[in-house]
Write a structure and sequence with these properties.
With about 600 residues, the protein is an alpha+beta fold. The protein is built from 26 helices and 17 strands. It binds zinc ion (ZN).
């Protein structure tokens, strides 16, 4: 990959809000994020970060720039060092830098593509291009739409575009580099022949490539420009240049499969649409789209390929921080046909009825199952456990409750299935693994930490119980150290142990797992045994306990920290200065407490 391309690529993959948000406490305010400027001293926020434009600006001191500029200024690094830092922080591999090589003249390439686009457009309706125009009209496109999208026709002779470009002074090398022609035995021949042409335009309104649809029997039916210095499919979306405003304004994007779908919907008055470039949705495409709106409706065919595309889309969009929903176009038609037949309002109703990703996945799992049959219910629960596990704690709670009433299975039982699965996937060394996880990552995102907190605290509690099983004296330590279990099962086991404590003969400090198990329900027993067997305490009880206790405290502090941050945001908003100062103080204390504990653990 060319170096300049890499910088573009880097900037697509990295979100400026995330980079700055690691150093500056940012709050969403309208379409911007605001915070206290890190470049001058101030009490009220005048530092704004624009996610869509990937740009920051301080109204107080005038500092502004893109993500690389921020890193340069904030960390006092050179341009190169900043790029290296960003690449390292986000795990992006840097290309070898070809020093001294000629700089790529992007504008020249854009200009050549623009010439080609004009050539295709002018060929529509002329000579063989009559077929092209007839085709587009047969698909219901108006003259205005054809002009708006710059649609055109590639003649079937196989040399006309090349000849035209060379007449215009374009070199053969450049024509080949842009994937517009290939070199054959008798010179260059056009890549696109007898096709309706769709210019692919980036969000800076530059023609970066073309898609061509065969009119006759030529294979393949759809053909895109070869990838080039200025055309990387994974970084661009079709029609986003036209749709981005509407996507931001309506705060919703609809992703469809085909270029024709985009154009047809646009013509029908639905402008917040885009399509990926003949590939499954990529991470970079999703990130790019999320800058305009996080609400992304996936509209794919209802066949197996479409379902797979939707499932992939869900994970890619979620990974980019978006909120995916899936819409189903009824009648088994694609959006193009549907909107022509039923109109704009009917299509928008379908989009409004798009289901959240989780509902889509649960519905898919239920397909062909009889959920009144006990055996199939069991099978269904097993199928949806991975879906439930992928959710944050609040969402998980909501869906567990919903499934419980839908299936007539207790919430507890579903929750246990979720937890058991989690434990089952652990290796025998899981005690070590969980210690590493307990330490957590300080650089991680807040929401991520909160998400992890549920299962981490669950594991800590269970590990503590296993420790107490081996040495009953730890039960008293829990009380002394103010440790309180949250999980219902952990509390139940604790009270079972407690009741045994008095009956143990002098000098015996151990409770057998069978004795505890006897007091549990069968599925509770299964979970507890599974966990107990996966935990290895090691020779030093006390060291193991201290580590668990630290993990417990880190969790407590992190949760309090999240609360403090929420309160802080409110206090700042209403201008309650005393409260802000108090909360900032507590925030610093908590940060310090967490740092101390994580550092102790890392050193040990
Ligand atoms: Zn400033």
């Amino acid at each position: 990959m060319a170096w300049e391309n890499f910088i573009d690529d880097l900037k697509i993959q990295i979100d400026i809000v995330d980079v700055i948000g690691r150093e500056v406490n940012l709050k969403k305010s309208g379409s911007n994020y605001m915070g206290l400027c890190p470049f001058h001293s101030e009490k009220t926020p005048s530092f704004s970060v624009n996610e869509e434009k990937q740009f920051y600006h301080c109204f107080g001191c005038g500092e502004s720039g893109d993500v690389i500029k921020f890193v340069q200024n904030y960390y006092k690094l050179s341009f190169m060092e900043s790029v290296e830092k960003l690449a390292a922080d986000y795990g992006i591999r840097m290309p070898e830098r070809h020093s001294g090589g000629p700089r790529i003249d992007y504008n020249k390439y854009y200009e050549i593509n623009a010439k080609a686009a004009r050539f295709f457009y002018n060929s529509l309706g002329r000579g063989g291009g009559a077929k092209g125009l007839a085709y587009l009209k047969s698909r219901g496109l108006t003259k205005e739409t054809i002009t708006k999208f710059g649609l055109g026709y590639a003649p079937d002779s196989g040399y006309e575009l090349t000849k035209h470009l060379i007449d215009e002074g374009v070199s053969e090398d450049d024509i080949i580099k842009l994937g517009l022609a290939n070199r054959g035995r008798n010179g260059l021949y056009d890549r696109f022949r007898d096709r309706v042409m769709f210019p692919i335009i980036n969000t800076h309104d530059k023609v970066i490539g073309f898609g061509g649809r065969a009119i006759g029997d030529i294979k393949p039916k759809y053909l895109n420009s070869a990838e080039s210095e200025i055309f990387l499919k994974k970084n661009n979306l079709f029609g986003l240049n036209f749709g981005k405003r509407a996507i931001a304004d309506e705060n919703r994007a609809i992703i469809v499969e085909g270029y024709m779908d985009v154009i047809s919907l646009y013509q029908a008055g639905i402008h917040n649409v885009t399509a990926s470039l003949g590939t499954a949705l990529t991470d970079n495409q999703a990130r790019l789209l999320c800058r305009y709106s996080k609400n992304i409706v996936l509209s794919y065919d209802s066949d197996q390929a479409g379902i797979n595309a939707a499932l992939r889309g869900i994970s890619v969009v979620s990974g980019a921080g978006g909120k995916p929903r899936v819409m189903t176009v009824t009648d088994g038609k694609d959006p193009d046909e549907f909107v022509k037949k039923h109109g704009k309002e009917a299509f928008l109703r379908l989009a409004d009825n798009a289901v959240p990703a989780t509902d889509f996945r649960l519905k898919l799992a239920a397909e062909g199952m009889d959920l009144t049959d006990d055996r199939q219910i069991l099978e269904y629960v097993e199928k949806v456990v991975p879906v439930l596990r992928s959710l944050g704690p609040v969402e998980q709670d909501i869906y567990v409750r919903r499934l419980s009433s839908q299936l007539g299975v207790s919430e507890n039982a579903i929750m246990m299935a979720v937890r058991t699965e989690e434990q089952g996937s652990r290796t025998p060394q899981s005690a070590r693994m969980s210690r590493r996880e307990i330490r957590g990552s300080r650089s991680g995102h807040q929401s991520r930490q909160q998400q992890d907190a549920g299962s981490i605290s669950g594991r800590i509690e269970m590990s503590m119980l296993v420790l107490a099983m081996n040495n009953i004296r730890y039960i008293r330590r829990f009380t002394e150290d103010g440790i309180r279990f949250r999980s219902a099962l952990a509390n139940k086991i604790l009270s079972v142990m407690d009741s045994f404590g008095d009956e143990l003969s002098a000098g015996v400090h151990r409770i057998e797992i069978d004795d505890i198990a006897a007091a549990l329900e069968p599925d509770e027993e299964r979970i507890f045994r599974g966990i107990a067997e996966s935990i290895q305490i090691g020779p030093d009880d006390e060291a193991f306990y201290r580590e668990l206790k630290d993990g417990y405290m880190i969790n407590q502090y992190r949760e309090e920290l999240a609360e403090v941050r929420n309160e802080l945001a409110v206090a700042e908003k209403i201008g309650h200065e005393d409260e802000v100062i108090k909360l900032l103080g507590r925030q610093m204390e908590l940060d310090k407490l967490i740092n101390n504990l994580t550092e102790v653990n890392n050193a040990g």
